[in-house]
Amino acid sequence: MGIYRVPVTITNLAVVSGLGANVWHVQPATDALVDVQAAIDGIRDFYTALAGRYNTSTTLVVGSRVLRIDVTPQPIIASTPRVVAGTDGGGAIPAQLANVVSWRTAIAGRSYRGRTYLGPFAASQLSGTVWISGLSTGIGTAAAALIAAGRIVVWSEKLQVATPIIGYATDTHVETMRSRN
What we know:
By secondary structure, this protein is of the alpha+beta class. About 20% of the residues lie in helices and about 35% in strands.
């Protein structure tokens, strides 16, 4: 079973720096394209469950350039990208404000945990300086469903090891992702 890198490109026309990305790693049941596509569709379903939290200016493209990363050279997989559109008609918030999901595995250590920064969400998801509790609940429900499918993993570039994700943590704190150049 191979390890595949699935990018998610996030565009939001309502914010100045309206481009973002998440990178997911999956280990499907087999290397057959149908199983790789099922893993991509699981990530799409995660974002679809959150579509009402993104404003209508947001588009998420899941799996536009999927790579198998546990072999050299790394082949591009002929998968079909999936598109999720935000459905909240309200305004947008700055792109750097995010909710963070911390992914847990059964092994302790830096190489065995991961994070996903989610956003930019619609302004309706903020209550003062924190996210509304419904956002955390929605993320939790979507994360639990994704974990239950059993395909997402934490990939350690350093150790070249994939570890299945077995849990998550999220809260109502607004986080900021800063790029390092």
